[in-house]
Amino acid sequence: MNPSISVIMPVLNEERHLREAVQQVLDQDYDGAIEVVLAVGPSRDRTQEVADAIAAAEPRVSVVANPTGRTPNALNAAIAKSSNEIIARVDGHAMLPKDYLRTAVETLRETGADNVGGIMAAEGVTPFEQAVACAMTSKIGVGNAAFHVGGEGGPADTVYLGVFRREALERVGGYDEHFERAQDWEMNHRIRETGGLVWFQPKMRVSYRPRPNARALGKQYFHYGRWRRVVARTHEGTINLRYLAPPVAVLGIVLGLVISPFFWPAALIPAAYLLAILVGAVLTGRALSGAALARLPLVYATMHLSWGTGFLTSPSRLSKPRPAGTDLHDLFH
Question: Which residues, if any, are the signal sequence (predicted)?
Fold first, then answer.
């Protein structure tokens, strides 16, 4: 008999997509009970009314308030409200394959993992989004993270979204609400530090719509870099060369531009970076349309330099410890 699953969804300003997102979960090809817990933040649209209407019409759906509007708070509130031994995180814009939950449970059984997840399959519609999708599945764009670029199944540092054993979440106390971003990576680190296994399953392919323009993409990657630095301060020894490449690129370009008026060879540093992303775009964007390929160098530069700038300028105050007396485990006990 298959275990029952609680699907937790952090929801904010999702009036247009919420019904479809919930329905794709309820329609999963899974021979077992499914409940959906919607953690609704203070939205600017009719998300709350839509969520309440769905819950009133569908007994498998419940709603819990998330007054902060922050993702980790929403996830913890939904976990506390949920009742099943398997907990799956799903986001409002994620497009799941029909066998997503079934594959997850099978993988949990076969591997003994505490958390399994798959590929964040970026799929663009406009030329800019298509360029972002290409960059997000390229090692030039995001390094060698399996949940971006794919690969063989196996142990991983982190995975996209995640389907968890409840006992693992309770063991580590859930998501740390201090982390506005990078909360997935941070919690998966604690799962691994407490002896748990995080497993990448490439069959769990989730479609994702990239940011629609350079400004939105830059803001996204700036915050990724900023909060990844916070994780590094909190958990020493978790930074490798892949994470240091963008900040090194930013420093090199800035120094090259500043020094070049006085020492012209320094201009070779930003010139070399520009040449590298142009060549990289040609090599990785062969399948793109001309319009998307033309945008790919801009996308690579936006991702690299925004992430690197966020990492370098991440203020130390973001890493302040939680106030004395607080305990993540209090959320579940």
Answer: none
Q: Do 217 and 133 contact (CB within 8 A), yes or no?
A: no
How many other β-carbons are positioned within 10 Å of the β-carbon of residue 287? 9
- E-assigned strand segments in 12-54: 34-40
Residues 94-119 pLDDT 10s:
889 999 999 999 999 999 999 999 99
Element (H, E) at 292: helix 290-313
pLDDT tens digits, residue range 248-286? 999 999 999 999 999 999 999 999 999 999 999 999 999
DSSP 161-208: EEEEEHHHHHHHTS--TT-SS-HHHHHHHHHHHTT--EEEEEEEEEEE
**Residues pairing with 121 in the sheet:** 207
Confidence bin at 299 (pLDDT 50/70/90) = very high
pTM given for the model? 0.85
The alpha-helical segments, DSSP class H, found in 27-70 are 47-57
User: In the structure, what pLDDT confidence band is assigned to residue 325 with cuts at 50, 70 and 90?
Assistant: very low
Rounded to whole angstroms, the Cα distance separating 227 from 315 reads: 10
The residue ranges of every structural domain in the chain are: 218-319
